[in-house]
Amino acid sequence: MANDSDETTAPGIDWDAEAAAFDDEPDHGLRDADVRRAWAARLESWLPTRAGDVLDLGCGTGSLSLLASEQGHRVTGVDRSPAMVELARAKLAGRDAVFLTGDAAAPPVGERRFDAVLVRHVLWTLPDPGRALGHWRELLRPQGRLVLVEGVWGTVAPAGIPAGRLTALLAPLAGQVRVERLSDDPSLWGREVADERYAVVATTE
After folding, report:
1. How far is CA 178 from CA 49, 102, 114, 154, 184, in A?
2. Structure pTM?
3. What are the mean pLDDT values of the chain's consecutive 10-residue runs (205 residues total)?
């Protein structure tokens, strides 16, 4: 749930303190109709066609969870910030969605399995992304999907995870891996961006 303007310091951010203003970023709150439509279209192409169970890790205030829910999926969101979780619960009140406070790398979902695990701007902040990917893979049902939105931000001190590294980490875990460049679609971000932003959709056997 990293804020695009603060990627180089995101791991040390107090997300409870940031929660109230988090949705002010165009790609966080999705308040602009064009930005919202752009993310909804991408999400529809990434998630399974049939309604299923989606685990949204690092869900923030639940904007992507809401889009998934509107597309018919049952959503479980996890975020380490209680303030974010409360905002997500309010945003999806009355929907088939549950939000839990916990670590995205080891989500508190017990033995539950999902049709898709959705993670945006979280993997690069984790100390052992390969281990997290392996655990997320175990949370998927057969033919499940990992949907990972990541990037590399900044030029002086770049932070993030390059697409090549991420696909290499996924190679032993997934049957099919597709990379989709997002940098050249300003409708997703509410502005032009010059850094590396992408999505990886990996399908399990």
Report:
1. 16, 28, 20, 24, 17
2. 0.89
3. 39 69 68 90 96 96 95 97 94 96 96 97 92 96 96 85 95 92 94 93 89
